[in-house]
């Protein structure tokens, strides 16, 4: 059985994953409102990924025989200064998620809870992909700048995203 500290940390991570999902859904709505359906689709797919991450941890805790305690999710921002600012906010959030996952992994190592170490290893690898995916879009947005036609081309490219894995541009 996992310690109380490990269970609490995973419950906190579930909340963080749901918060990430809610944030990405809000970003999707922002892009829909800006008539950028490709960016909206990309963010909607991120929303679905984050939900899957939360449920993976939910199922992990229940498999351990631990109690899942859902927490309140704060309202995410609804507006951003620009497309670039939205993606920069996404990257900052992913970096917070990465730090939290690393702390859970460290706690699992400290407490020699091998199932949590293995579960968190998957998340450690996933976060490398998540940060890279968002970072790649940020790099392209920085290259595009205020060029409207280039932004629309990038929007179209992001709209072609398929499957899980944060495939970006």
Overview of this structure, please?
This protein is mainly α and 169 residues long. The longest helix is centred in the C-terminal third of the chain and has 31 residues, at 114-144. Helix 1 (4-33) runs antiparallel to helix 3 and helix 2 (37-63) runs parallel beside helix 5 (148-159). Helix content is 76%, strand content 0%. It has a single domain, classed as Ferritin, core subunit, four-helix bundle (Ferritin). It has helices spanning 4-33, 37-63, 83-110, 114-144, 148-159.
User: How many distinct folded domains?
Assistant: 1
Going by CATH, the homologous superfamily would be Ferritin, core subunit, four-helix bundle
Mean pLDDT comes to: 95
Measured by DSSP, the beta-strand proportion falls in under 5%
Query: Care to count the β-strands?
Result: 0
Highest CATH level, the class = Mainly Alpha
Q: Major sheet: size, sense and barrel closure? A: none
Number of helices: 5
What is the CATH-assigned architecture? Answer: Up-down Bundle
The coarse silhouette is: elongated
The portion of residues assigned to helices is over 70%
SSE order in H/E notation?
HHHHH
Taking pLDDT < 50 over at least 5 consecutive residues as the criterion, the unreliable ranges are 165-169
Radius of gyration, in Å, reads 17 Å
State the end-to-end distance.
42 Å
Helix/strand/pairing class, anyone? mainly alpha
CATH topology: Ferritin
Question: Any descriptors?
Answer:
169 residues; mainly alpha; Ferritin; 5 helices; 0% strand; elongated
Topology:
Elements: H1 4-33, H2 37-63, H3 83-110, H4 114-144, H5 148-159
Helix pairs in contact: 1-2, 1-3, 2-5, 3-4
